[in-house]
Amino acid sequence: MPTRDDLRNVAIVAHVDHGKTTLVDAMLWQSGAFRANQDVAERVMDSMDLEREKGITILAKNTAVRHSGVKINIIDTPGHADFGGEVERGLTMVDGVLLLVDASEGPLPQTRFVLRKALEAHLPVILVINKVDRPDARIKEVVDEVYELFLDLDADEHQIEFPILYANARAGWASLDPVEHGADLEPLFEALFRHIPPPSYDDDHPLQALVTNLDASPYVGRLALCRVLHGTIRRGQTVAWCRVDGEIEQVKITELYVTEVLERVEADEVGPGEIMAIAGLPDVTIGETLADAGDPRPLPIPHIDEPSLSMTIGINTSPVAGKDGSKLTARLVKNRLDAEVVGNVSIRVGPTERPDTWEVQGRGELQLAILVETMRREGFELTVGKPQVVTRLVDGKLCEPVERLSIDIPEDYLGVVTQLLALRKGRLEHMVNHGTGWVRQEYLVPARALIGFHTEFLTETRGTGILHHVFERYEPWHGDLRTRPTGSLVADRRGQSSSYALINLQDRGTMFIGPGTEVYEGMIVGENPRAEDMDVNPAKEKKATNIRSSTAEQTEGLIPHRQLSLEQALEFLREDECLEVTPNHIRLRKANLSALERGRRKKNAAAVGP
Ligand SMILES: Nc1nc2c(ncn2[C@@H]2O[C@H](COP(=O)(O)OP(=O)(O)OP(=O)(O)O)[C@@H](O)[C@H]2O)c(=O)[nH]1
Ligand SMILES: [Mg+2]
């Protein structure tokens, strides 16, 4: 088959933070994409607000550089496990991958996930051991660990003969030698040209282009990102749009773009092997094929892993609803969720018994939290339920998702952490003592048990422990598990919190609010160290005395409250609790706000017995 020797398509994959986006920066600079004095942001591909704030990549994005007369389309993928769907999609566009592994951290759960996907797709791999400048780099061991991982994933002989480069992405060099520093990324570019095959195509095959991603442009509306497999597509041409529902429609292509550096530029025609964007098909979705009008041949729809976590999202039902946001109605929430499903194949939305609430399924807490965060920034007010695992019936048996968990902890905490995980039905798979005072353990744990685990893990390891997990498989239901051992301090009336009340309450538990905060009946204002909930009055005022502390309220002795982030708040929730999320506030609350009703239900439940 003929090949496009002027072209390469490559994805960069790795565990979170191993340096993918930083490496793309260096590749852009060294291929002359920017002027020497040009002001370019660090990690320029992380262009979304939330990406810059969190310092992580959320959406896979492509860029293109030119080197030695060859155009290289590079797909930067996210490393966080919750965005695995982005990686899977990215891999359908490329002919090989750069697998980055941190020289000190070594392969971690998401390394395993992305490598498994790359091997399943039969993509050649170039291993890049990155961050070799780290003082705690252990290059030789890490290379051995990667070989082990390849074997563990049943790589064939051909796949295991991968080239290895050693890099410092931040300084912008790569070397074929683990000890010798490189001068620039030339060795990486050379390896890329040698080991990542140019796209091949069939000259006699009619046009076939697969829609692998969606984007939106303020000028032309929805853009479909496609990889052209065979044939050439031209502006103004009529093609067959093979939809996922099996329908085939004749459509005219009005706009065509290819990527140059960070820009989309218009093109008159795009040949085989290229990655392009097209406009003019407002309903096009991922997995559809654009094909020859006279001989349409739809491609199989790429498989994407199923979601394993769900939560409810609905309109804000709190007594203070409507004060903060601009998007309040069920219709607006529904439309927004529907729009999300279109561009994000790893998210599903379904109905619940309430007409103003939907069940949203995704890959993990962070992915769902990012959706909620994005919506609140758009002006939405929402009620968000506790994250729950998505169960499934396999051969009539109830099954639940199990995660592969990897933790790094100082030896001293081995005892407590082992105990924590035993309570959660974690099974130890693997343990390495690096001999540096740190231990790495790998567990298989029901996903259910990890909801809320992170906070407790950090507390028990005094903030030193590091934890990562990724979906492994479905297993038969593991039975009852311990959930949060603490209860909630719940406001018993509407009002404004006072320092006086909080100073008295802080002896009972950890407060989540400071003075002067608006509270309402059923709102959770703190954590009770005991298992049960306690109704409290955070708005209580000190009896008036002759001496009035005019403006400033007495704050002496007030312990700063614990401010929960959106993710932490989601982790904290129990079954009968939810979150009120507005553009400016996150409030924890009981699902049932009335203290009277909650009390009555509890009594009834006790009467019926367990
Ligand atoms: N010391 C050192 N630090 C590096 C190197 N490469 C990247 N970093 C740092 O590692 C951190 C993470 O880098 P990113 O490029 O955002 O990592 P990423 O793999 O894109 O992360 P995600 O997209 O969130 O998975 C940043 O603080 C970088 O400056 C390197 O070669 N050496
Ligand atoms: Mg990144």
Molecular structure report:
This protein is an alpha+beta fold. The strands form six sheets. Strands 18, 19, 20, 21, 22, 28, 30, 32, 33, 34 and 35 form an eleven-stranded mixed sheet that branches. An eight-stranded antiparallel sheet has the order 12-11-17-8-9-16-13-14, with no helix packed on it. Strands 2-3-1-4-5-6-7 form a seven-stranded mixed sheet, with helices on both faces. The longest helix has 14 residues, at 139-152. The radius of gyration is 27 Å and the shape is globular. Magnesium ion (MG) binds next to helix 1. Guanosine-5'-triphosphate binds next to helix 1.
What are the low-pLDDT stretches, counting only 5+ consecutive residues below 50?
Answer: none
For the residues shown, what is the average pLDDT? 92
Strand % is 25-35%
Helix content: 10-25%
Tertiary shape: globular
Main β-sheet description:
11 strands, mixed
Q: State the helix count.
A: 15
Structural category: alpha+beta
Q: Termini distance?
A: 68 Å
> For the CA atoms, what is the radius of gyration?
27 Å
Small molecules held by this entry:
guanosine-5'-triphosphate, magnesium ion
Count of distinct strands? 35
